[in-house]
Design goal:
The protein has helices at about 15-20, 60-70, 75-85, 90, 100-125, 135-140, 200, 225-230, 245-250, 250-265, 270-280, 290-300, 305-315, 320-335, 335-350, 355-365, 370-385, 390-400, 405-415, 425-435, 440-450, 455-475, 475-490, 495-505, 510-525, 530-540, 545-555, 560-575. By secondary structure, the chain is mainly alpha-helical. Among the domains are: about 60-80 and about 110-125, no CATH class; about 515-575, no CATH class. Helix 21 runs antiparallel to helix 22. The longest helix has 26 residues, at about 100-125. InterPro entries: BBS8 (IPR028796), TPR-like_helical_dom_sf (IPR011990), TPR_rpt (IPR019734). It holds the Pfam family TPR_16.
Length: about 575
Amino acid sequence: RRAAGTAEPPLPRSAAQRGPDSPGGASPFPRQRQRRRPRSAQGPGGRGRRGGRMGPDMEPLFQAWSYFRRRKFAQCSALCSRLLERAPGEQLGYLFWSLKGICLFCFVLFQAAWSLKTRALTEMVYVDEIEVDEEGIAEILLDENAVAQVARPGTSLKVPGTSQGGGPSPAVRPVTQSGRPITGFVRPSTQSGRPSTMEQAIKTPRTAHTARPITSASGRYPRLGTASMLTSPDGPFINMSRLNLAKYAHKPKLAKALFEYIFHHENDIKNALDLAALATEHAQFKDWWWKVQIGKCYYRLGLYREAEKQFKSALKQQDMIDTILYLAKVYLRLDQPVTALNLFKQGLERFPGEVALLCGIARIYEEMNNISSAAEYYKDVLKQDNTHVEAIACIGSNHFYSDQPEIALRFYRRLLQIGVYNCQLFNNLGLCCFYAQQYDMTLTSFERALSLAENEEETADVWYNLGHLAVGIGDLNLAYQCFKLTLVNNNDHAEAYNNLAVLEMQKGHVEQARALLQTASSLAPHMYEPHFNFALLSEKIGDLQRSYTAAQKAEEAFPGHVDTQQLLKQLREHFTML
């Protein structure tokens, strides 16, 4: 008798069904008509279906893995959920009938489905930790990790040098709040500079889309529990409060998938750190991967010195490029760019020609306002990878601001050839064509940029550049309308307020010009043009005190501006005579 609750073994086939060469004689059971099961798409002995389509009889776990390989993570997660909810007999079908086989196979299947769903949910919200470097207001103004309050010139990102490498001045190339020139490629660390006061940090420079978050945890990273609520309406997939981390730490394969789920999906850094510490202890501190994960947790918690120790220990065990990049992020957050540069150069000795290391050196030089050295390393990047978008864009931007629009046009056309097709590229192409005197392509490029604009901020920038084009050809009425359209799309565009004020001054509307310049100065205190124009206008109408105050602000924003220095000299002589 078979045990109760066990699967019934299949009946043996009759001799007629086995074929002429099959061993065995006639069956004692009566001949029964059985349905033939269709072959699976990639079953044993079968050729598979034509076209590579997955049939309805494919093994569900294999189908979920296929979804995962094709980055269809939502379908993979849903299929794994159905697998985890099914009864053991439904999971096995007709393959096994022994009790021991059922228990073993169910455990392995459940474990595989659980691990696969964990990885799928992680990939849905995964963000590369190397590229994300966004500092919040709390990290900047409440930072106690500074090595020196007054750093030497050229050794700090907070106070970058002025044109160390012979780069263009702020009169030619726009700068951020911290005084660094605007780069040719938008990265999280170049969205806005390091503000020096709480007022500048809280104030939104442009719009709410580019505002600095209060902390880095409230910026790009998902808030605690938000991702799990979105992916599982009935509740989180894993209940963190009931999780036995010590049990999973003894299973290395499951522990790694669980750590990435907790770190990226749940954003629960504390539990992720506890799991990584237990797993490292179980591995007898010989697994470099867990040390890197502990360093990532310390970095997210703001414990940069502890993160530095973990990354250094991991590098001693296994020399990896990602670990070098993580350690360089720690040094940059500690405001030690020279140490990060030395680390990258040491990495290049072990990994010669590595694009990520060359690009990291170029970024640091660019943030330190050493434009010529940054351009040299970006050229080295292109020698290794001639389709590197960031290097092409930065070199093109450098040539444009160095009064070489024809060469910049070649680089931007190269971006167009390799498949980049967006509003920013056509906007830059239009400016290069205008300054290279190729007027037939200028308006066409700007029209294409307007059609490809995805939000109002991009539309405002295109209209602002069209206003510059109108000023260049002498059509001031068209320029006035373009700047007005810029403010319609983006009411916080400080450059448009400044240029509108200049046009109002030419028309003789003094009060409107003063109001526009005051608005531009409050929106962008790091720009010297609104301060200088306001000082010049106030000096003409006899308001010398306001003129002197505004001129001092302009000199602070751009110490090398000759016109500001001459205006201050005249005002001081006038005050001396009084």
